[in-house]
User: What shape does this take?
Amino acid sequence: MSGKRKMFIYGGIIGLIGAILMKMGNPGNMGICIACFYRDIAGAVGLHRAEVVQYIRPEIIGFIFGAFIIAIFKGDFKSRGGSSPIVRFFLGFFLMIGALVFLGCPLRMILRLANWDLNALVGLGGYVFGIFIGIQFLKKGYTLGRSVEQSKISAYLIPIVAVVLLIFLVIKPAFIFFSTEGPGSMKAPLILSLILGMVAGAILQRSRICTAGGFRDAMLIKDYHFLWGILGIFTLNLIANLILNFDNFNISFANQPVAHTNQLWNFLGMVLAGVCSSLLGGCPIRQTILASEGDTDAGITILGLIVGAAFAHNFGLASSGEGATANGKIAVIVGIVFVLFIAYSIVTSKNKEEIQNKGVVKNA
Assistant: This one.
């Protein structure tokens, strides 16, 4: 089987899983949303108190378990990290801010588009533009440095946290919060969500599908390998939703579930998400899979995502169906300026170091 066909099939399975989860109870146009799911988990453990978005999403636990198990089996599980962790934390933080202003991660953006939420088309334009901006820094030598071997326990922390979350989800202790209304209360059955999440995690680990990587490689080196996976997600999700969720099918900008029509901020929110994903070397779903393989840098990024989600809801940055908030708009602009400054500083520092090294060699 050709690489393109295999990648399309891998992506198609992810798209199919998204449609099934939506049919079985997940929020509309949100069969899978990494940003929204981490946001719900942050609320469940009390990091924010937005009562309508609090739930320990078993899909996230499944992604981690599936990727962890297949990585162990295939010999891909390795403890590594130490590559600019504080920068990664803040890039993850602002990635989440951009996603929650748009109301969805890059993967949900594709799923929303497959359900003909035309607001996602605007978001897609912003995301690709953000990745394009990131590419300009990559061309100038931007890098977060090399990761090195870490202690073994560091690699197991994310899977261990997933186990703890699963225990909390099952026994429902009093200190864990669960929504009784709103998106957080809409959920597919626990076992089904966990199993499908594990299947998706295993597929994502083997395929290495990444929305940011797909668009980046296409623009930077004319490699369309991962784009076939993204196309598979879109195509199979579209077909599956025509069959399973046709009653919810709505080709329009207006009246879309968990979405708004404030197009400037749909665009700019995803510009921020695109720049951050490009500078991080992977979108939220890719960071989740990497963390499950023992990459502690990706684990730090996930912490940034979770803290960003808590911050967004504690300070009124996240959008709603009525549109982007004033605080959210300010946060997006601050975020874009901040991450561009970080990227510029890294490139400038690297170039100065190279000039100094050349001078040392010449004088020698």
